[in-house]
């Protein structure tokens, strides 16, 4: 994942910052508790395709 791209990407829902989880190939939005997949090096920033993170999981 290009660090320059990570600097400009924001959550499409709240426009907040994202956390890059390299091992999971995901970008995480803490406030919205959403995980956006990275497929073939390209972030899929569609809310309909995002994974909801359950409330009992701690986001680091």
TrEMBL record:
Belongs to the UPF0434 family. In the C-terminal section; belongs to the UPF0434 family. GO terms for cellular component: cytosol; membrane. Transfers the gamma-phosphate of ATP to the 4'-position of a tetraacyldisaccharide 1-phosphate intermediate (termed DS-1-P) to form tetraacyldisaccharide 1,4'-bis-phosphate (lipid IVA). Pathway: Glycolipid biosynthesis; lipid IV(A) biosynthesis; lipid IV(A) from (3R)-3-hydroxytetradecanoyl-[acyl-carrier-protein] and UDP-N-acetyl-alpha-D-glucosamine: step 6/6. InterPro entries: Trm112-like (IPR005651). One of its GO terms (molecular function) is lipid-A 4'-kinase activity. Keywords: ATP-binding, Kinase, Lipid A biosynthesis, Lipid biosynthesis, Lipid metabolism, Nucleotide-binding, Transferase. Signal peptide: none annotated. Pfam families: Trm112p (PF03966). This is UPF0434 protein C8R28_100216.
């Amino acid at each position: 994942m290009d660090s320059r791209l990570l600097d400009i990407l924001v959550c499409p829902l709240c426009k907040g910052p994202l956390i890059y989880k390299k091992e999971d190939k995901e970008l995480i939005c803490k406030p919205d508790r959403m995980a956006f997949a990275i497929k073939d090096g390209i972030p899929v920033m569609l809310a309909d395709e995002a994974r909801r993170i359950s409330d009992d999981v701690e986001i680091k």
